[in-house]
């Protein structure tokens, strides 16, 4: 999918009071993916403890996963192939070199209409595809703020739908 130009960029901001709201945002992203039938590549940005895995848990549970969801820090990827669409949760925090991703067949994860949630994507720069959606999580008081930026038209549809559903 073609990246958006600067004039086409679609953004929104969502204030998240607590962990349950972060999971709800993830669930809404999953609903948008299910409604469109298209996969989505999502880069999750933010410091340690900002809620990247919590947001991923919301996506995965909304797709039907009932087990625990933890960050795959040591395995790099946790597949959820029993879901439809299949989902893959990556954590590249401990990645030594982006070329290591080539050895694990990283490109194969992005061929279909699956959901790929990627924490610490900047560590895979040059190997990972362009994201459909970038979500940056930052602390605000006792909660968080999620900044959603579309990278493709597919991501734009998700951002516009979430923006429309978010109270001002």
Count the helices. How many?
A: 4
Strand order of the largest sheet: 1-7-6-2-5-4-3
Number of domains: 1
Note the beta-strand portion: 25-35%
**Major sheet details:** 7 strands, mixed
Mean residue pLDDT: 90
The helicity comes to 25-40%
Molecular shape: globular
Unreliable stretches: none
Protein name: tRNA threonylcarbamoyladenosine biosynthesis protein TsaE
Family: Belongs to the TsaE family.
GO biological process, one term: tRNA threonylcarbamoyladenosine modification
Main location: cytoplasm
Summarize the structure in words.
With 168 residues, this protein is of the alpha/beta class. It has a single domain, classed as P-loop containing nucleotide triphosphate hydrolases (Rossmann fold, 3-Layer(aba) Sandwich), CATH 3.40.50.300. Helix content is 27%, strand content 25%. The chain contains 4 helices and 7 strands, in the order βαβαββαβββα. The protein has helices at residues 19-36, 52-62, 100-103, 153-165; strands spanning 11-16, 40-45, 77-80, 87-91, 115-119, 133-140, 143-150. The chain has a 7-stranded mixed sheet with strand order 1-7-6-2-5-4-3. The model has no long low-confidence stretch (mean pLDDT 90).
Brief synopsis:
With 168 residues, the chain is an alpha/beta fold.
Descriptive labels:
globular, 27% helix, 25% strand, single chain, Rossmann fold, alpha/beta, P-loop_NTPase, 168 residues, cytoplasm, ATP-binding
């Amino acid at each position: 999918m073609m990246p958006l130009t600067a004039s086409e960029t679609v953004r929104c901001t969502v204030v998240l009071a607590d962990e349950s709201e972060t999971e709800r945002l993830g669930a809404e992203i999953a609903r948008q993916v299910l409604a469109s039938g298209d996969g989505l590549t999502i880069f999750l940005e933010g410091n340690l403890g900002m809620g990247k895995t919590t947001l991923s848990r919301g996506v995965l549970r909304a797709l039907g996963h009932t087990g625990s969801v933890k960050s795959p820090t040591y395995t790099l990827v946790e597949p959820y192939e029993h879901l439809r669409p299949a989902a893959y949760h990556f954590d590249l925090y401990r990645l030594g070199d982006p070329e290591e991703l080539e050895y694990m067949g990283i490109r194969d994860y992005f061929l279909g209409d699956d959901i790929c949630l990627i924490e610490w994507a900047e560590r895979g720069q040059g190997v990972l595809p362009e994201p459909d959606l970038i979500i940056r999580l930052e602390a605000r008081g006792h909660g968080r703020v999620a900044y959603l930026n579309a990278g493709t038209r597919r991501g734009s549809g998700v951002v516009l739908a979430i923006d429309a559903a978010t109270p001002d």
